């Protein structure tokens, strides 16, 4: 009886221990992981993806809005997509480009009429100080037609064709710089797709991560002009560790916009905010979304 009772006691202890372990394991398995807080942003529209295009965050991501100078991402992409592109080819600055920015009170690279400026320099003038004069010069150079108006129209058609080819189904461009003629719009999702595509190009990446650039142009008399430095309007390049681009935008209709990208520890985040309330909240919105995008990939 003693040995039988001992066996029963040992069995009971074993069962109890096993059951306790299972309950403990079950409790651990059932404990929910700490939820990641979804950021609140002031922008009316926003979208974030990882490097492969996987959606990480949306807010009215497919609502069409004015895009301001984030349009210039497409301007640069169309130029850089030209066959047999010579970045050192020179473009003579026309009075029409200067008159345009003055009449529109537009952001400019302060290009000098008569100067010969390389395509590479124009791309820096386009993307850093957001020069609408540089945008005009590039559209005139890379459009086709016998008149300036025809060449500009042709270039804008190329922008729309590229958008279609990228699957930007809620996007239409009617200008080379984002100063809309009434039908220039996109969405956070579409613009993020554009930014991610543009960033696959080495030249584009190199330009948009540059904080400051000084161009040396050739004057009409053949001398060298050292331009005042062009400073990148993207504040994230100085404030956010790992920031790599992409482009700011603003305007009465567009509000404050920003297409942004950053890479940390081999992870990349792309995103766009449209119609934020001011430059400070635009930067804050993007910072919060970048942090969230990286946390989602942790």
Summarize this structure as a short list of keywords or feature phrases.
five-stranded antiparallel beta sheet, 19% strand, 42% helix
Short note summarizing the structure:
Helices cover 42% and strands 19% of the residues. By secondary structure, the protein is α+β, with helices and mostly antiparallel strands. The longest helix has 29 residues, at 2-30.
Give your account of this protein's structure.
The chain is of the alpha+beta class and 298 residues long. Helices cover 42% and strands 19% of the residues. The protein has helices spanning 2-30, 72-80, 95-104, 119-127, 132-142, 148-165, 188-198, 202-208, 236-239, 279-296; strands spanning 45-50, 55-59, 90-92, 116-118, 212-213, 216-218, 224-226, 230-231, 243-251, 255-264, 267-276. The strands form 4 sheets. Strands 2-1-11-10-9 form a 5-stranded antiparallel β-sheet, with helices on both faces. Strands 3-4 form a two-stranded antiparallel ribbon. Strands 5-8 form a two-stranded antiparallel ribbon. Helix 3 crosses helix 5 (132-142), helix 4 packs across helix 5 and helix 5 (132-142) packs across helix 6.
Q: Could you estimate the helical fraction of the residues in percent? A: 40-55%
Rg result = 27 Å
Task: Give the strand order of the largest sheet, numbering strands 1, 2, ... along the chain.
Answer: 2-1-11-10-9
User: What is the H/E order?
Assistant: HEEHEHEHHHHHEEEEHEEEH
Instruction: Assess the beta-strand content as a share of residues.
Output: 15-25%
Reported for the largest beta sheet, the result is:
5 strands, antiparallel
N-end to C-end Cα span: 60 Å
Number-wise, the strands total 11
Mean pLDDT, to the nearest integer, reads: 91
What is the global morphology? globular
Structural class: alpha+beta
Number of helices: 10
**Spans where pLDDT lies below 50 across 5 or more residues:** 1-33
């Amino acid at each position: 009886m003693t040995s039988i009772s001992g066996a029963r006691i040992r069995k009971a202890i074993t069962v109890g221990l096993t059951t306790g372990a299972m309950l403990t394991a079950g409790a651990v398995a059932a404990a929910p992981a700490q939820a990641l807080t979804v950021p609140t942003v002031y922008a009316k529209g926003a979208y974030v993806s990882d490097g492969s295009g996987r959606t990480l965050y949306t807010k009215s991501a497919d609502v069409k809005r004015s895009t301001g100078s984030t349009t210039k991402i497409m301007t640069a992409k169309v130029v850089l997509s030209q066959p047999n592109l010579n970045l050192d080819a020179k473009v003579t600055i026309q009075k029409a480009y200067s008159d345009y920015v003055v009449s529109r009170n537009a952001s400019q690279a302060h290009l000098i009429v008569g100067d010969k400026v390389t395509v590479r320099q124009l791309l820096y003038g386009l993307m850093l100080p957001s020069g609408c004069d540089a945008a005009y010069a590039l559209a005139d150079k890379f459009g086709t037609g016998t008149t300036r108006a025809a060449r500009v129209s042709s270039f804008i058609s190329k922008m729309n064709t590229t958008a279609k080819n990228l699957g930007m189904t809620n996007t239409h461009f009617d200008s080379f710089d984002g100063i809309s003629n009434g039908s220039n719009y996109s969405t956070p999702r579409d613009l993020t797709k554009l930014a991610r595509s543009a960033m696959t190009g080495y030249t584009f990446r190199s330009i948009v991560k540059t904080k400051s650039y000084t161009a040396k142009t050739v004057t009409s008399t053949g001398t060298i002009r050292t331009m005042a430095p062009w400073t990148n309007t993207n504040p994230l390049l100085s404030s956010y560790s790992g920031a790599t681009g992409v482009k700011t935008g603003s305007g009465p209709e567009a509000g404050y916009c920003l297409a942004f990208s950053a890479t940390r520890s081999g992870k990349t985040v792309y995103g766009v905010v449209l119609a934020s309330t001011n430059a400070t909240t635009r930067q804050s919105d993007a910072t919060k979304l970048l942090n969230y995008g990286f946390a989602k990939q942790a």
